[in-house]
User: Which sequence fits this backbone?
């Protein structure tokens, strides 16, 4: 079983502990764990430069992708040795865990829009699609997508998110990408690592699951 897990930059303070926790779990269970890093604080200056029109959308896109590399190096710099993968081949040959550095992968298949609608969420889905997976887990610092009144939306169709324009904690392109590639996504709070395990094992968990509408 292969798991694609995007670790958000909002979890910077506990990101390395979380990766170690997931690595131990994957090794114990015989799973393959592919970690896609977010951008986190490494992307904030790029956003500021982009908003000030100091850089083009094209430049901002690739700088933001490289910000994911910085967080990836940070996550890998822990007590255990975690391989870094810069190609689909390296991902497939990495063993039970790797952290993806996506620049070369995206350069080889430059099909995602170069706008701020595309962030590490859609890139994680893109990586999952490239390795043949139909689901990825987004680990962040909130429980999931919230309704207007603040309650957690436990299950939502990607098509609904597109129609409503609701984004919450995901980027705007992700629902569209999920629809095009027939994928799903689960959003879970990484401050509670046991919830990630519940999601992986298919048990009831506090999270948001984004699925596609089923056709009659």
Assistant:
């Amino acid at each position: 079983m292969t798991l694609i897990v995007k670790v958000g930059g909002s979890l910077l303070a506990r990101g390395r502990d979380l990766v170690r926790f997931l690595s131990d779990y994957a090794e114990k269970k015989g799973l393959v764990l592919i970690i896609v890093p977010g951008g986190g604080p490494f992307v904030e200056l790029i956003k500021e430069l982009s908003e000030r029109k100091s850089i083009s959308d094209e430049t901002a896109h690739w700088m933001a992708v490289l910000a994911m590399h910085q967080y990836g190096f940070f996550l890998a710099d822990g007590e255990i040795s975690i391989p870094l993968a810069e190609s689909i081949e390296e991902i497939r040959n990495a063993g039970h865990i790797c952290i993806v550095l996506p620049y070369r992968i995206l350069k080889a298949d430059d099909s995602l829009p170069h706008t701020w609608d595309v962030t590490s969420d859609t890139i994680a889905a893109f990586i999952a699609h490239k390795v043949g997976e139909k689901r990825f887990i987004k680990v962040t610092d909130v429980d999931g997508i919230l309704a207007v009144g603040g309650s957690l939306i436990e299950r939502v169709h990607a098509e609904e998110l597109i129609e409503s324009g609701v984004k919450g904690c995901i980027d705007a392109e992700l629902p569209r990408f999920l629809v095009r590639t027939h994928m799903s996504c689960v959003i879970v709070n990484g401050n509670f690592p046991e919830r990630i395990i519940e999601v992986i094992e298919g048990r009831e968990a506090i999270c948001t699951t984004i699925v596609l509408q089923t056709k009659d």
Q: What stands out?
A: The first strand starts at residue 2 and ends at 7. The mean pLDDT is 94. The two ends are 30 Å apart (CA to CA).
